[in-house]
């Protein structure tokens, strides 16, 4: 009887020990699993930011990351939809005053800046800064968002480049409004020194005369143009 009692007691003690140890081992296993799933934030790679940092500036200032990021998102969408046929991306940042160079032309294949230039906004969009935008005829305001460059022609401003707006009710009247890229003598450092701002257009993104031909020749025929302002949310994105 005593032997039987001792045997039962030993079995009970072993069972209690095993059961007591199991939750501890399980807890350690869960803790290890959780730790292995945590990725340090420094290891999370933002490919878009990495692309931005790797742009060859050619001695120019780079656009702000916010405008580049949005431009690149739209560029990728338009490439996927086969709407644009060129790997040239043009960014105009209307968060900047007209006294600063706020147009960039970037070769997305070579990942380098080709041009960095002054650019005018519409006369009813504001004086030093562009603050008001429109898609309406005779508003004399700039439009925002994504455009596709089209054909060139010789107009009253010489060589000019037609634009087609890609965002409904935001810039899709660009062609009927004759919103084009052209050169103008009021887009110059001399004009800035005299007036403390650039001259203004009827809504066109006007360029310095000395850069007009080179820029238009580079970006014509179905490349992407993005005109940025912090107030705008593109319907493409």
Describe the structure.
It is a single chain. The protein has 237 residues and is α+β, with helices and mostly antiparallel strands. It contains 5 helices and 8 strands; from the N terminus they run H-H-H-E-E-E-E-E-E-H-E-H-E. The chain has an 8-stranded mixed beta sheet. A hairpin with a 4-residue loop joins strand 2 (103-107) and strand 3. The longest helix is centred in the first third of the chain and has 36 residues, at 2-37. It is globular and about 40 Å long. Residues 1-45 have low confidence and may be disordered.
> What strand order characterises the main sheet?
3-2-1-8-4-5-6-7
Q: Indicate the structural class.
A: alpha+beta
What distance lies between the first and last C-alpha atoms, to the nearest angstrom?
Answer: 83 Å
What is the share of helical residues? 25-40%
Largest sheet: 8 strands, mixed
How much of the sequence lies in strands comes to 15-25%
Low-confidence stretches: 1-45
Query: Can you count the beta strands?
Result: 8
Overall geometry comes to globular
Count of runs of 4 or more consecutive helical residues: 5
Mean pLDDT reading: 86
Helix-strand pattern: HHHEEEEEEHEHE
> What is the gyration radius calculated from CA atoms?
30 Å
């Amino acid at each position: 009887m005593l032997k039987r009692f001792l045997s039962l007691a030993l079995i009970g003690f072993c069972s209690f020990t095993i059961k007591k140890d199991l939750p501890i081992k399980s807890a350690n296993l869960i803790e290890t699993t959780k730790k292995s799933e945590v990725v340090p934030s420094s290891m999370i790679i933002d490919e878009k930011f990495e692309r931005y940092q790797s742009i060859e500036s050619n001695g120019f200032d780079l656009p702000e990351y916010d405008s580049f990021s949005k431009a690149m998102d739209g560029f990728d969408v338009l490439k996927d939809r086969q709407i644009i046929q060129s790997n040239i991306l043009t960014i105009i940042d209307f968060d900047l005053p007209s006294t600063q160079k706020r147009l960039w032309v970037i070769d997305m294949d070579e990942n380098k800046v080709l041009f960095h230039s002054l650019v005018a906004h519409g006369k009813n969009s504001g004086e030093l800064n562009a603050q008001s935008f429109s898609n309406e005829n005779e508003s004399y305001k700039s439009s925002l968002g994504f455009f596709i460059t089209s054909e060139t022609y010789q107009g009253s401003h010489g060589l000019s480049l037609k634009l087609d707006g890609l965002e409904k009710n935001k810039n899709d009247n660009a062609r009927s409004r004759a919103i084009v890229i052209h050169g103008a003598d009021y887009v110059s450092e001399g004009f800035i020194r005299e007036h403390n701002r650039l001259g203004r257009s009827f809504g066109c993104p006007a360029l310095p005369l000395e850069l007009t031909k080179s820029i238009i020749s580079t970006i014509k025929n179905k490349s992407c143009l993005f005109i940025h302002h912090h107030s705008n949310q593109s319907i493409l994105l």
